[in-house]
Design goal:
110 residues; alpha/beta; Aminopeptidase; 3 helices; 25% helix; 29% strand; disordered N terminus; Acyl_CoA_acyltransferase; Gcn5-rel_NAT; GNAT_YJDJ
Length: 110
């Protein structure tokens, strides 16, 4: 008899769910129903300006588009809150370059 195991949303090809924790200033994706998670960290550097600082996906989950979901959620947050964004994180810089939507570009500080 097969041993019961937790099956992740990623293994079932379910949509990736990004959670936003405003208090901790981070976006997260829970992985495999465990404590593993992918994270995007940001800080407010002004009243209406955020610095999107760092994106991290555990090695075992890289290459599955998780960071892209985090970056999109963060940039959509910037747009929805009418903020400006400084992109310290190289991955978010890459995401915006590959997805040059006007609503993103007009909010990025250079």
């Amino acid at each position: 008899m097969a041993q019961a195991s937790q099956i992740s949303a990623l293994e079932l090809n379910c949509p990736i769910k990004v959670e936003h924790d405003r208090k901790r200033r981070q976006f997260t994706v829970r992985l495999n129903g465990s404590h593993d998670r992918a994270v995007l960290l940001y800080e407010y550097i002004g009243k209406k300006t955020v610095d999107l600082q760092h994106t991290e996906v555990p090695d075992a989950y890289r290459g599955r588009g998780i960071a892209k979901h985090l970056a999109k959620a963060a940039m959509d947050f910037v747009v929805e809150e009418d903020l400006k964004a400084h992109l310290t994180c190289w991955y978010i810089q890459k995401f915006v370059k590959e997805n040059p939507q006007p609503q993103y570009l007009e909010r990025v500080l250079h």
